């Protein structure tokens, strides 16, 4: 996936990145059964897959953030470059005129920089949290002709305080489709998240941790497989027709998100 150099440069100036504690320590991983790198033979490995990770809670001990940190360590282990966005000062959509806020600009720059993403939300009242939805809502389908999410791979995860549920991952999967992302078939749902981590915030060995490994491994494979072909996979007849009709220099980014009028036969 080739993006304008200015977008990559902007991502390198990000200040709202969550630091990753103990980035290379994986006590719950049995390395004998981990395939490294998982994308070998699927596509060129010219650079590490660029993965953006978003979490959905601002609590000091946020279990969605702890899951994202475990996923980020696995991304590193599998040869990728993870970046965790810190949403602590992200305004609500529309709160600032024109969404002209540095946190919004950094989130969008990171999304443009990314080749794949991991979203993890707590389930609250049967749905994703406002913190999670706010981040997604700040990612428009297009910015000046550039699409921050289209063609990126996506893995979805959730944490629950009670029994295992899939409401949040189902919503994240729906949003990923809406954002024109290639969402992984696999997913992770961690039940009773307060029991899944030790006092230091590290995930204990469990079936839940093994599923997170599965999801990250799958994301890395699909990212390596699809990133050289994003332009071809996202090429659309309707947009080519519209581009041929439009005056030279017109921005066509809104055409893809305009409502389609049904016609009877």
Account of the protein in words:
The chain is α/β, with parallel strands linked by helices and 265 residues long. The chain has one domain (5-25, 46-228): Rossmann fold, CATH 3.40.50.360. The protein has eight helices and six strands. It has helices at residues 5-11, 63-77, 102-113, 130-137, 167-178, 207-226, 230-233, 237-245; strands at residues 50-55, 81-84, 116-122, 153-159, 182-183, 188-190. Strands 1, 2, 3, 4, 5 and 6 form a six-stranded parallel beta sheet that branches. Helix 1 (5-11) crosses helix 3 and helix 2 crosses helix 6 (207-226). The protein is globular and about 60 Å long. The N and C termini lie far apart (40 Å).
**Alpha plus pi helix count:** 8
In which range does the helix fraction lie?
A: 25-40%
Instruction: Tell me the number of strands.
Output: 6
Superfamily (CATH H level) name: Flavodoxin domain
By CATH reckoning, the class would read Alpha Beta
Radius of gyration, in Å, reads 19 Å
Global shape: globular
H/E order of the elements?
Answer: HEHEHEHEHEEHHH
**Global mean pLDDT:** 90
CATH topology: Rossmann fold
Structural class based on helices, strands and sheet pairing: alpha/beta
Strand and helix layout:
Blueprint (H helix, E strand, L loop, with lengths): L4 H7 L38 E6 L7 H15 L3 E4 L17 H12 L2 E7 L7 H8 L15 E7 L7 H12 L3 E2 L4 E3 L16 H20 L3 H4 L3 H9 L20
Helix pairs in contact: 1-3, 2-6
Short description:
The chain is an alpha/beta fold. 33% of the residues lie in helices and 11% in strands.
């Amino acid at each position: 996936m080739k993006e304008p150099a200015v977008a990559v440069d902007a991502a390198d100036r990000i200040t709202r990145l969550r630091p990753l504690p103990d980035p290379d320590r994986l006590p719950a991983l049995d390395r004998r059964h981990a395939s490294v790198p998982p994308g070998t033979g699927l596509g060129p490995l010219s650079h590490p897959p660029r993965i953006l990770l978003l979490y959905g809670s601002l609590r000091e001990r946020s279990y969605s953030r702890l899951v994202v940190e475990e996923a980020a360590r696995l991304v590193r282990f599998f040869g990728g470059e993870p970046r965790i966005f810190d949403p602590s000062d992200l305004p609500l959509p529309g709160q600032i005129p024109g969404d002209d806020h540095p946190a919004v600009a950094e989130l969008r720059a990171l999304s443009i920089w990314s080749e794949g993403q991991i979203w993890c939300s707590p389930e609250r009242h049967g749905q994703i949290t406002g913190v999670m939805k706010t981040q997604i809502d700040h990612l428009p389908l297009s910015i000046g002709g550039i699409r921050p999410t289209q063609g990126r791979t996506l893995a979805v995860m959730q944490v629950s305080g009670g029994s295992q549920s899939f409401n949040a991952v189902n919503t994240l999967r729906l949003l990923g489709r809406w954002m024109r992302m290639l969402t992984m078939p696999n997913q992770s749902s961690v039940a009773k998240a307060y029991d899944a981590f030790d006092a230091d915030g590290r995930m204990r060995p469990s079936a839940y941790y093994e599923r997170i490994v599965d999801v990250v491994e799958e994301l890395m494979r699909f990212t390596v497989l699809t990133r050289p072909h994003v332009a071809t996979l996202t090429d659309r007849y309707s947009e080519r027709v519209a581009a041929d009709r439009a005056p030279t220099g017109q921005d066509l980014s809104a055409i893809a998100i305009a409502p389609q009028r049904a016609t009877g036969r």
